[in-house]
Design brief:
It is built from 12 helices and 9 strands. The protein has 270 residues and is an alpha/beta fold. It has a single domain, classed as Aldolase class I (TIM Barrel). A 9-stranded parallel β-sheet has the order 5-4-3-2-1-9-8-7-6. Helix 8 links the parallel strand 6 and strand 7. Helix 2 runs parallel beside helix 4 and helix 11 runs antiparallel to helix 12. The radius of gyration is 17 Å and the shape is globular. The two termini are 30 Å apart.
């Protein structure tokens, strides 16, 4: 199984950013989620990020909240998501990262959750509500199981705290591109671009850095790639396709594949 460090090294050798595709596991069903992952990977997605649905999210916008609701209504659980994830890793040979709120991990028991994640060959875990200052024990347990702990930084993160996050994160640093919650944007303002440049310069290749929240178009991918990000995370744009084609799986998969190809073509550093 290729881990995140190996995958980012591969991207650097190919002179491009990695494309990280996010979908909510179980939306529209656990049976279709692996098919969506397959369509994404065939289109060029390098890393699959699977969201574990949660009833009270703090960072998710309406699009991802709706996908979580659809998944929960189908009876999706963290345990069956982990079981399904193993099949995605084995079949597609790409790293799979989980995005889950820490309450979900705690409710299952930290060691139990990490044991299941290890058995499912999960490469890394993003937990938006776990700050690095409170995550040392969790991070150590995850490291013992070769699971990366991915922490987030925002445009407002000052350099002192950013250095602490850089020293704590593994796999990659997840930069939130803007203030607010997730959701596709048409444009990004100058503040977001300047903050992105500052963080890339501050990280200075100490750890791979990926950017997400709001990125939905090839032009966004191209711009952030040129700034120097090692990875570009796209989620809501994929989920909108799912939402619009709930009754037409074939069209859903075709459009997800097409978007993946379009975004992948923008990841090369010119």
């Amino acid at each position: 199984m290729m881990n995140l460090s190996q995958k980012f090294k591969e991207g650097n050798e190919q002179n491009r950013s990695l494309l990280i595709g996010f979908i909510t596991a179980g939306d529209p069903s656990l049976e279709i989620t692996p098919k969506l992952a397959n369509a994404m990977v065939k289109g060029g997605v390098d890393v699959i990020e699977l969201g574990i649905p949660f009833s009270d999210p703090i960072a998710d916008g309406p699009t991802i909240q709706s996908s979580s609701t659809r998944s929960l209504l189908k009876g999706t659980t963290p345990k069956n998501i982990l079981e399904m994830s193993k099949n995605i890793v084995n079949d597609l040979k790409v790293p799979v990262v989980l995005l889950t709120y820490y309450n979900t991990i705690m409710s299952m028991g930290v060691e139990n959750f990490l044991n299941l994640a290890q058995k499912s060959n999960i490469a890394g875990i993003v937990s938006p509500d776990l700050p690095p200052e409170e995550g040392e024990n969790y991070r150590n347990l995850a490291r013992e199981k070769s699971i990366d702990t991915i922490f987030l930084a925002s445009p407002a993160t000052n350099n002192e705290r950013l250095d602490r996050i850089i020293n704590s994160t593994s796999g990659f640093l997840y930069m939130v591109s803007l203030f607010g919650v997730t959701g596709a944007r048409d444009i990004f303002n100058e503040y977001s671009f300047n903050a992105a440049k500052r963080i890339v310069q501050r990280v200075n290749k100490r750890v791979p850095v990926a950017i997400g929240f709001g990125i939905s178009k090839a032009e966004h991918v191209s711009h952030f790639t040129k700034i120097g990000f090692d990875g570009i995370i796209v989620g809501s744009a994929f989920i909108k396709i799912i939402e619009k084609n709930l009754n037409d799986t074939k069209t859903m998969l075709e459009k997800v594949n097409n978007l993946s190809r379009e975004l992948f073509n923008a990841t090369t550093i010119n």
